[in-house]
Amino acid sequence: MLSNPVVVHFKDGNITKGYLKKFAFYRDEFILLEVDKKNKIKSKGEKSIDVANIKAIFFVRDLEGNKDYQERLDMAREGFGDRVEVTFDDGEHIVGYAKDHSAKQNGFILYPADSNSNNYIVGVFHSSIKDIKVMEGELATA
Fold first, then answer.
1. What pLDDT is stored for residue 90 in this prediction?
2. Whole-number mean pLDDT of the chain?
3. Cα distance between residue 6 and residue 120, in whole Å
4. C-alpha angle 119-90-53 in degrees, rounded to nearest 5
5. b or e along 59-81 (b: 16 or more beta carbons within 10 Å of the residue's beta carbon)?
6. For residues 76 and 140, is the Cβ–Cβ distance under 8 A?
7. Distance between CA atoms of 127 and 117, rounded to whole angstroms?
8. For the segment 37-63, what is each residue's pLDDT rounded down to a tens digit?
9. Given 3-state DSSP classes, what are the helix, strand and coil percentages for the chain, each rounded to the nearest 5?
10. Residues above pLDDT 70, as percent of the chain
């Protein structure tokens, strides 16, 4: 069974779009069905991905996205866990909510702060994280 569309960010800066097979944080690898520039699955696009090379997997609503959309980082989301800021080793920051961001498995699920984001879930890998900070303070409501 295929996942919804994903954008896989590798630690080396490369990005690949496609669909996942056999993905779980307790596994050391998964299968990615890559897509071409028209977002169609490549005929020979199935490849095994080692999670040691992954920064994060962005589960998206649309592979095209909207480059003009400005995500709101100050939105409150009840029932999604702690509001956290994740800083990756490459300096990128992402703000969202996580129920369990401990290092029990290879990674954890982060729900973006902005529920209107094209990213509806982010699979964050611990091996690519520099820091996780639990955030507090006044937030806007949707």
1. 96
2. 88
3. 10
4. 75
5. bbeebeeeeeeeebbebebeebb
6. yes
7. 25
8. 888 888 777 889 999 999 999 999 999
9. 5, 50, 45
10. 94
- The pLDDT tens digits of the residues spanning 83-131 come to 999 999 999 999 999 998 877 788 999 999 999 999 999 999 999 999 9
3-state secondary structure 53-116: HEEEEEEECCCCCCCCCCCCCCECCCCCCEEEEEEECCCCEEEEEECCCCCCCCEEEEEECCCC
Query: For residue 93, how many other CB atoms are within 10 A of its CB?
Result: 12
Tell me: the pLDDT tens digits for 119-136?
999 999 999 999 999 987
Sheet holding 119-125, edge to edge: 41-50, 29-35, 15-21, 5-10, 54-60, 119-125, 107-112, 93-98, 82-88, 129-134
Neighbouring residues of 4: CB distance < 8 A, sequence distance ≥ 6: 19, 59, 60, 61
Structure tokens at 47: 């490849």
Residue 68 carries which side chain, given as an amino acid letter? D
Q: Is 28 left (phi over 0), alpha (psi -120 to 50) or beta?
A: alpha
Q: Which two tokens stand for residue 54?
A: 């992954």
